[in-house]
Amino acid sequence: MDKLGLTRDIDLALHLPIRYEDETRLTPIAQAREGEVAQIEGRVLASRIELRPRRQWLLTVADDSGQIVLRFLNFYPNQQKALPEGALARARGEVRGGFWGREMVHPQVRAVQADAPLATALTPVYSTSAQLPQAYLRKAVAAALWRAPVQELLPPGLLPRELARLPSLQDALQFLHHPPARTSVAALEDRSHPAWQRLKFEELLAQQLSQLQAQRQRARLRAPVLRAVDGGLSERFRGVLPFELTGAQQRVVAEITADLGRSQPMHRLLQGDVGSGKTVVAALAATVAMDAGWQCALMAPTEILAEQHFRKLLQWLEPLGVGVAWLTGSRKGKARAQMIERVASGEAQLVVGTHAVIQGDVQFARLGLAIIDEQHRFGVAQRLELRRKLASQALEPHLLMMSATPIPRTLAMTYFADLEVSTIDELPPGRTPIVTRVFADGRREDVIERVHEEIGKGRQVYWVVPLIEESEALDLQNATETHALLAETFAPAAVGLLHGRMPAAEKAAVMAEFTAGRIGVLVATTVIEVGVDVPNASVMVIEHAERFGLAQLHQLRGRVGRGAVASVCVLLYTSPLSSTGRERLKAMAETTDGFEIARRDLDIRGPGEFMGARQSGDALLRFADLQEDTRLLDVAHELAPRLLDHHARAAQDLVARWLGGKMEFLKA
Questions:
Q1: Regions of the chain short of the pLDDT cut 50
Q2: If DSSP states are collapsed to H, E and C, what string results for 233-280?
Q3: Domain boundary among 64, 92, 117
Q4: Per the domain annotation, does 656 fall within a domain?
């Protein structure tokens, strides 16, 4: 039970069936249709063991309308003894068309007395473990519901009329665990039944309350007031920028600057499509913190992305006298010790790196602002560790999270409800639209010909493969083989190789060569997914594109089209395509809008997978569906402040009931 997380009576009550079996009626054998599950009852006419093609037990069962064969490939002697010829058997299973007539393979079967009563409710089937039989779990759930009836926590009169008609939570749970005979199984399984609506609404309300509580707790914390100084670093940085900020960039900079100037910790998500210019906004925020005499930390999920940030920020800020430190897992020994010393003394005003920035031996002198790029790619535990490190100071630093995966409205209202969101919804001028082409693998030669043309014009090309070692199961070409093949195909042009298992120094050297234009084609795995900025790259070829997620494909596509050159993204796929793979490639071909991509990704994958590491492996929403239940979400969003303000105890109990030990993850 503990393995399933069923430690409290309420956990058992909320452990709802994944499906139901209808044992409330009998179907005459002649009327049981092939392909459907039916429950039949009849006398055993014959019981025999056959040895070919393998040992199996065959029971022929008949009623007044006809007969059927029950076939068992695994069985025990006591089962045979219980069902001798002449016994009355009741069996339930899928009817199939066999060589000798209709049959059921491995049905549920038992001997019964004449006129044995049928079940009066649908039989629940629960997700369980091998050590926990269904019968035991059914008894445990029924006992929990009887032992500790679920208390109604919603005050009367709080719900709008449309929801006030729904059953109480106790009645809804009793119904869902033991639906009466003749209940529509379809309404139960598509979760449209009023009992399901009641459950989903309370779950959404608890989730909204928990986010609101987290937001209010954060509001009570204190942070340093960070304001830029006249003629200071922030002003000088704006003065040397070689381009004008877009209107959207100016707007979000103003929102972030206003937050930094308050004594309440900023907790803001900066979202913007690929190439919208989030890095310069982050740099401007950092200059405000440094102007005020505080340090800034910028954390990225991969060394390649962290190094891209480091080089760009060094290029922008070092001439202005800013001390920048670089911390990653590959930096060891004396070099690391020197960097840590610079961070601790405050000499390093800006610290850039991977998760190494939050390791135990790193201590900041005065950390005023923490920036997390591609925040959804950090695990919950890592984000909690960052918050603990920040909390070790007298004042809580401001927190800015960045994401190139736009957050659809329903997700913003649920998983990110405690965040302020700034959106860069405008691309910098001069960017050319990227054309996306989808080709079957059989047209590879056409793609190679196009790449030849681009290299001939002095352009550069990314060629992305999904794995770096042979996988017979997936039949994917590995990066090393592809590199050898393309090096021969595109000679004398230089073809580079980049993958996650290369040493950091080697990766950096290859990227430097590509950035400098000395490599024409870069064969790479998804280590180049984010942050790589080479304006001369005009073609992105993605092999086995059907294997990639939609957000990942969009990120990869964003590596081209970063200059004034017309760019193409080619998606090569291998047949047969799954329906999900087809939907992804269709979405990529139809739109380059990151917000539309995010919406479709949510439709295809659902919130749990879309969010990746936002959860700790457990979805915070178990029953509600963000696409189907937007009305319930809107009502929950509206009611949460009223419940928390006027019925604080009920609100607290509601959150404890639904979230239990997951409260900590909401802080991340």
A1: 379, 472-476, 530, 608-619, 663-666, 668
A2: HHHHHHHHCCCCCCHHHHHHHHHHHHHHCCCCCCEEEEEECCCCCHHH
A3: 117
A4: no
